[in-house]
Amino acid sequence: MFPGIDGFHWTAAHVIFLSLFFAVVMTIVATVVSAVRRTARDFQTKRAIDFCWKADFAELPEPERRCRHELAGRVMSRTCDNAFDCRQCSKYSQFAVLPARGTVHSLGLDYPEDRFYHRGHTWVKLEEGGILTVGLDALAEHVIGQADSIKMPAIGSDIEINETAWRMKKNGNEIRVRAPIEGKVVGIGGPTDGWYLKISPRLSAQNPALLRHLLRGPEVYGWVSRELERLQVELREPNTPPSLADGGVLMPGLMDAVPEADWDSVLAETFLEV
Amino acid sequence: MSARYGMVIDLDRCTGCGSCMMACASENNVPPLPQATARTGLTPMLVRKASNGMDGAARREVFIPIMCMHCEHDTPCVKVCPQQAVEVDKATGIVMQMPQRCLGCRYCMTACPYHARYFNWWDPAWPAGMEKSLNPGVAARMRGVVEKCNMCHARLHSAKEKAAAAGKREIDPADYVPACVEACPTGAIRFGNLADPNDAASQESRSPEAFRLLARIGTEPKVYYKSKEAWVRALAESKSGSGSETKRSEVQHG
Amino acid sequence: MASATLTDSRWIARGEERTSLSRFLLWLAPWTVLLALGVYAAGLCLYFGLNQTNLDNRFAFGLWIFLDLGVIALGAGAFFTGFLVYILKRAELRPILNTAVVVGFICYSGAVGILGIDVGQPLRFWFTFWHPNTHSMLTEVTFCITCYLLVLCLEYIPILLRNRQLRKVPSMLVFEHQLHKLVPVLAGVGTLLSFFHQGSLGGLYGVLRGRPFAFRQGLFIWPSTFFLFILSAIATGPSFLMLVTATVEKVTGRRLVPQEVFRRLAFISGVLLAIYVAAKSIDTLIWLNVTSPSVGFAPWQYYMYKPFGTPILFVEIVLLGLVPAFLLTYRKTAMRRGWLLTAAGLACAGVLLNRFVLTVQTLAVPTLPFDEFLQYAPSWQEVASFGGVTAYGVIVYSLSYRYLPMFASPKGENTHVSGD
Prior knowledge:
The complex is a heterotrimer of chains A (274), B (254) and C (420).
Chain A: H1 12-44, H2 47-59, H3 68-71, H4 92-96, E1 116-118, E2 122-126, E3 132-136, H5 138-144, E4 149-151, E5 158-159, E6 164-170, E7 173-178, E8 183-188, E9 196-201, H6 218-235, H7 254-257, H8 263-270
Antiparallel strand pairs in A: 1-2, 2-3, 3-9, 4-6, 5-8, 6-7, 8-9
Chain B: E1 5-10, H1 19-27, E2 46-51, E3 61-66, H2 76-80, E4 86-88, E5 95-97, H3 107-111, E6 118-119, E7 146-147, H4 153-165, H5 179-183, E8 189-193, H6 200-205, E9 210-211, E10 223-226, H7 230-233, H8 239-242
Parallel strand pairs in B: 1-10
Antiparallel strand pairs in B: 1-8, 2-3, 4-5, 6-7, 9-10
Chain C: H1 21-48, H2 63-74, H3 77-87, H4 97-118, H5 127-130, H6 137-161, H7 170-206, E1 218-219, E2 222-223, H8 224-252, H9 259-294, H10 311-329, H11 331-334, H12 337-364, H13 380-403, H14 410-419
């Protein structure tokens, strides 16, 4: 053990002391190794994505964690406790049967009724043959305008729900767009026909859980109008009251129009990244 | 048979000439260090001065050579060194400092009640030409390590070699005499094997005039002092231990 | 970066208000200068050797060792808070936990850094691990402090990884989560290590048979100072945390920790301090009447040198021990923030005085009957190196405060409940 030490002699004290010392060192090392291995395992089993999403969700301010049923006016007030994954929510069916009381009014933005919406401002459209199309919603497009660069995933790659589906760069800000659905990427739309992904979902098209977690109908209006309010509050000049309280029309290319705003924050809350 | 090398220093004979210090420095390749102060120099052997604290005609002074006392029991420096750079040689009773293992933490220096340990504050350096006088049998110590008296270990080594060459197991006591002992012009230092009852030093150490510094601390030092003067013998203990008067606080530094 | 003005807002946790980057840099500037001076002084010591200090053969330990012992005692808040939160499940102290870890990390890394300059041959540090003398208290100190610094690094990592930009990297976020789950293990190990090295630091002096001023009897291999150091460290660690937090609150003009946490810390600190004062008094009496006379040293002799007279005993035990212990536990004073912080300051000063007495006075008091009381004043290099460590501490703490979630806000609290 101690080569090259002339005259070193083992004593009982050495044995006790060194075994204690190495037990402590091994505990520390084992702790680190265990943390690393668990991290690696989380990534292999895709639990890491789910975990990151939940951690990001927990970082969201309270007003942004409202339940979809509150947005639709089915319940008075309810904070989501399932990280927006209604498939895991035990209360979902209980509330879903209640009549929606939300007021639907023009937001000045195009949110087609035949699509489903994810809180990260993406839409999902059911295509023929069970393929889903995923794209950025109107609010996101208005905010970003023309992106400087876009990095789409490769065709054939697997995407998990709430994982970063694609990345965009705009004025030095990196925007990570969350995938609203899990599955295999089977097609990508280019710059000419709008950026979108075609995804072959992991669940079959007949499975009611396929799109359950996504917003639709009156929920969309409740959600988008709150998002617009938030944008107004965040983009106003410091020390001024929110303007456009009546819900004026959002101008396209907001990021270019108001470059001085704290876009890192705004985008983070818009795309639910931290 | 294992030896217990020790010394008996007759303080009545010590004139404070400093020959022992010179001999020690020269034997052990102690660099001259002109930049050193009284408290930063390398003096494995150091002659210090003490007085009875009186003034005028009643004043008495004594020179006390201080070196490593080679404590035998619970040796303070051996116990504290974190890396076994100090060991008591079982065959000789000499407390050995191994500078090559020393971290330079100086914990041993704070542990030593006799302040007989020295730190190499500077790189060792000798004036041009002086390197010719260096002792080839002793390694110079590098900066940042602690050193002290090791009873001229190189001399013990050559005595052993001589004995081995002659086919003997035991060394001839005449072959192993530390430099300070050899150099003392008044023969005040007697060196010998305290474990040998017939040894002159051993016998002297048991005389009623012999005493050890701070013996009550209980470290069993192997360097004895000897004096006919009662007040000198009283120096064995701390000021308070030696008597009621505490006036001796104005003693000087050698 | 798009905007013209330099900003670090994207590194600051969302929803947290911090002063502007320029003001922050202005605050760091003088500390950076002090740190640079300290690094220069330390460089001189490493390059030219310890002759740059005013240490000498008689005062082989000086300012550095005193401060190492002091800083490590004050840093005990880290292990003790971890112990209270994770082992004794005192969840109410959670808001102070991160700050405790960072303060502990700063104290220990600073002390280890200074030790690295203080030894004559720093490159031989591994010798202690390779051929240890297990009878030496310093061996235990070296082993435990090294391990504990490792533990503190590991406890610091989860805080570090919760930075807004770092947590964007998924692997870091997950690793933080997994490591955080294992932190109780680290807290346990840290408690064991701290317990032993705090004690061994006391034992360092208590075992010095050759220094009757410091020598103490004790249990088995441990002199009484072993236990007294543990007690005094865990008594003043929480006080020091209160002082640090209160200072940060003052500088930032923000309430960071509920007053309830302060009161809880104060009570723990006060009770432990009272126990310590009692133990220290008994120990002092035994030492004065039994230990010291038995080796031939009349105790009052230690105190004949100005300014190290008997008043120092009174100041250490009563003024900086009993008084703060009372102030910290007495309801009426414990409710008042001013009194609380005064008491915490006194307690910390008390532990520093104790370490000073044991390290510096021990060496100044003569042992040989013909010796004199010694004096020593640190050189500028010694003072500057320590100033550098202080600056390092302030800088690390400021950076941590600005960019890391040091004080768990109510929102942050939720994060952890759902994150765990």
